[in-house]
Design a protein that fits this description.
alpha/beta; Rossmann fold; 2 domains; six-stranded mixed β-sheet; four-stranded antiparallel β-sheet; 6 helices
Amino acid sequence: MRLQSSLNSKMIKVTVCLVIASLCLITLPTRSLTQSTDKRRLKVIFVDDKNHSLDNIQDQDIEVLEDGVRQQAKIEQQRLPARYVLLIDTSGSLRSQFPHVLETARAFIRSNTDKDETAIVRFIDSSTIQIVQPFTSDKALLLSKVETLKIQGGHTAILDAIYASAEYLYQYATKGPPRNNALVLITDGENRDSVHDLKALLDFVRPKDIRIHSLGLISELDKEAGFIRKAPRKKAEELLSLLANSSGGRTFLVAKPKEFPEAILEINHDLRSDYLITYTSGSVSPNPKIEIKVAKSPDNKKRRAIFKAFTLD
């Protein structure tokens, strides 16, 4: 599958699938039942009990366990430019909230540094996933493209849009210098008509150096469940949280305008700053489980780790 650049407004169709991973407990791909000497890395975001990103985490603050066995791990804070796809839902369900969508997109772009790279992708249904602007560091150009975005009717295909955008980002990132790679999804989270399966989508994203951060505008979704169906708002919240948790990213569910600035601030921090933990695995398990325990802060506040695991070649 290829996502075509749409300077000529080409629409694309996608084909996808996905897997479920937990927030702080990761299962690596199956291997033969022999002692491993793999070098592994964990890309980590640390947060406090109010879900604010944390800096200044030290070696003594963490304990890395693999199958319950403590690992000799090294931690290093990374501050890299961002390389991200601004993935914007332009379906009809967001019509009344679209001014907030546009202002959120502008806020992310205005926060870019000179070395950041951003692409803009809009989506509606499976046949309407369009690169509005390929990767660029030109903020003025990006802002001008935001002004071209319009609401259009259709059944939202969030999973298809994520898969296509992740593939586009991955292909682009392999040709460039190290960056923090991410999708920043702005949507109400209501996935109505994706052709693809959630499991294979996360199967594609999880082993790659791509996080999914999402900002969910959930205020107008119905909170009432039907006799045999889950409430649309609850369903959207669960989907966005799963996508973020499975990729080492974060989700912010915003129901009021005053909640936007803090959510944008947090995601902007995570786009450019995180931690790298490395260690050599000694596990004999084909599916080692990894856990990061984080000590309380000096003022006795809880802290936790959000991460994804990779095997270094």
